[in-house]
Specification:
The chain has 397 residues and is α/β, with parallel strands linked by helices. The chain is built from 12 helices and 15 strands. The chain has 2 domains: 202 residues, Response regulator (Rossmann fold, 3-Layer(aba) Sandwich), CATH 3.40.50.2300; 129 residues, Rossmann fold, CATH 3.40.50.2300. Strand 7, helix 6 and strand 8 form a beta-alpha-beta unit.
């Protein structure tokens, strides 16, 4: 009974206090509604693969930087797909120029459901990886793989923005006989898909032009000692030595040629056509001794755009372009342009638009694809080394 009285008094006191304070039992004013959050931009993942470790990591990093530059520029400008803003995300992977690692990272990108892939750098990694991308329906643009097989497998997802080995090796073979007047020519390759491919095409062109191949030797893409094969070649007294392989091997090979007294002209494809070769070869490279071809090229009005790209690249990364960063840059932008035009980043929807790319104005020149996915009218840039620098001799289409 005492408890009930106390309770009643407590209620009465509370009511009296409310009245004294001038408050009434009414709902508190609602807090102002929060402004609706801006919708998050959809993320579109684009893969890039190149050898960013190992002997040719400088080439792989060069390519990756080209992709990074394109992605950052596109994001800064704002990309709208189907009326919605998207954020592009680069998934950069290292294949170490190894076919097994190349297929492993290709599967990783496929599992991550990337919208497209730019890469790989080497033919030896690009070709096996292309089957994985094809099975997953993911468009792939190689900025540098030149083995013809890549686009001759019938995969609708495979594209290439540079000339292939048939053009590359063929042009160099004709140049060796017709311009350098090579009468006896030695050929070395590194047994990779790229090295063998370009060496075979070079050999065909030499023989077709009436030249004579007096020696065929091979090494590996990791070798450092070439004295045995070079001694054999020296005995054949060649005018020209052609190497199908990369700059990391060609540099030491040139030094050993000098030490053995081999004064032949030295030729190679795009794999040796880099600023790094000049550093690696050092004083073993005489003026007009080394001749190579980059599987691409610009001339005339397009040269201004390439020069501007190289200047921006140097400012951004504090290194010079090695070889194929501009081709990677264009590849990323072509891929995104196809997505924008198709109103979708779904590979199945934008792939036909990508295949129909016609006269895209890139820093590497106009780009259109043929029915195989190869660039139409691919150019080659013939170069030599003079005064410790690569110099352009001519752009050939």
């Amino acid at each position: 009974m005492q408890f009930k009285v106390k309770s009643a008094l407590t209620v009465l006191a509370a009511a009296t206090l409310l009245v004294a304070c001038g408050k009434k039992e009414e709902a508190a004013p609602a807090a102002p509604a929060a402004a609706p959050a801006a919708p998050a931009a959809a993320v579109v993942k684009i893969g890039h693969v190149g050898p960013t470790s190992g002997a040719i990591a400088h080439l792989g990093k060069d390519n990756e930087n080209g992709a990074r530059m394109a992605i950052e520029e596109l994001n800064a400008a704002g990309v709208m797909i189907d009326g919605k803003k998207v954020t592009l995300e680069l998934m950069a992977e290292d294949d170490a120029a190894d076919p097994k690692q190349g297929t492993a990272v290709a599967q990783k990108l496929a599992d991550a459901k990337v919208a497209g892939v730019v890469g790989h750098l080497n033919s030896g990694t690009t070709i096996p990886a292309s089957k994985i991308y094809s099975d997953a329906g993911i468009p792939q643009i190689s900025p540098s793989a030149t083995n013809p097989k890549y686009t001759r497998q019938g995969f609708k997802t495979a594209f290439r923005v540079v000339a292939d080995d048939a053009q590359l090796g063929g042009t160099l073979g004709k140049y060796a006989v017709g311009t350098l007047k090579g009468k006896s020519i030695a050929v070395i390759d590194d047994r990779t898909a790229y090295g063998q491919g370009v060496a075979e095409e070079f050999t065909k062109a030499v023989e077709g032009a009436g030249g004579k191949v007096v020696a065929k030797e091979f090494t590996t893409d990791k070798a450092t000692d070439f004295n045995s094969i070079l001694t054999t070649i020296k005995g054949k007294k060649p005018d020209v030595v052609f190497f199908g392989g990369m700059d990391a091997v060609a540099g030491p090979m040139l030094k050993q040629m000098k030490s053995l007294g081999i004064k032949a002209k030295f030729m190679g494809g795009d794999g040796i056509c880099s600023t790094e070769l000049v550093k690696l070869g050092g004083d073993a490279i005489a003026d007009d001794q080394v001749f190579c071809a980059e599987a691409g090229g610009v001339e005339g009005e397009a040269k201004a755009g390439m020069d501007e790209f190289k200047a921006k690249f140097k400012t951004k990364f504090n290194v010079d372009v090695q070889v194929y960063a501009p081709y990677v840059y264009d590849s990323v932008k072509i891929m995104v342009a196809a997505m924008v035009k198709a109103n979708s980043s779904d590979p199945a929807k934008y792939l036909p638009v990508l295949a129909a790319t016609a006269d895209y104005k890139g820093v590497t020149g106009p780009i259109s694809f043929d029915e195989k996915g190869d660039i139409k009218g691919g150019a080659l840039t013939l170069k030599t080394v003079r005064a410790g620098k690569l110099e352009t001799i001519a752009v050939i289409r």
